[in-house]
Amino acid sequence: MGKSGFTLVEVMIGLLLVIFLSSLGFVAIQTTTSSANLSRAQSELQSEARNIIIALSREVEAAVQPIMAGEPPLPPGVQGLQVLDAGRTLRFQVPLNETFTAFSAPVTIRYENEDLPDEQAESILGNALLDGGEDTNEDGVLTRRLVRQQAGVTGIVGGANHLADVRFELQENGDVLRVSLVLTRPMGTRPSQLIRCQVQEDIYLMN
């Protein structure tokens, strides 16, 4: 009567199958985790972009519109909304009453960015990391944000620090400000790859 059991070849084949199936399971779990992390990071950037647009809209929609050709001039010393620094800065005033006889002190919203262009990636955007020589304000973090200044008081618009690029563009009729934002952040354990969110929104000027 023969003895039952497994041959060495059968044992080796069984081990190889277990290793192969385990590898497939590990790759599947890793892929699912990476996709979830990417989706979460993109959602966070989109949320930041929305917050910035909302904060900008609250600030800018009440701004005095620039005077177009043929329109009556503004009161002396009052300036309509201006787009400066190649689309990186806004300057405007807000009427303080319905008769347009009193106006706020000028408000400046300026884009600050310490992130230098990424020459290695041949990109005008930076790498979203604080590299040597970039910390110009010496606060230990990479500054990429919109700064609001009025009458000597400084604040941050939207609170985000992931702004890789900002462009302001006043449309032809003078009552619409187009805002284009690009937000980036490193992808977890692979800092050489960036997660990117791009948003464009029109803000209608009410005054």
Note the main attributes of this structure.
207 residues; alpha+beta; three-stranded antiparallel sheet; 29% strand
Q: How would you describe this structure to a colleague?
A:
The chain is an alpha+beta fold and 207 residues long. The chain has one domain. Helices cover 26% and strands 29% of the residues. It is built from one helix and eight strands, in the order αββββββββ. It has one helix at 8-60, and strands spanning 82-84, 89-92, 107-113, 144-150, 153-157, 163-170, 176-187, 190-204. The chain has a five-stranded antiparallel β-sheet with strand order 1-2-3-4-5, covered by helices on one side. Strands 6-7-8 form a three-stranded antiparallel β-sheet, covered by helices on one side. The protein is elongated and about 100 Å long. The model has no long low-confidence stretch (mean pLDDT 81).
Helix and strand topology:
Layout: H1 8-60, E1 82-84, E2 89-92, E3 107-113, E4 144-150, E5 153-157, E6 163-170, E7 176-187, E8 190-204
Antiparallel strand pairs: 1-2, 2-3, 3-4, 4-5, 6-7, 7-8
Distance between the termini: 102 Å
Question: How are the strands of the biggest sheet laid out side by side?
Answer: 1-2-3-4-5
Structural class, please? Answer: alpha+beta
Beta content comes to: 25-35%
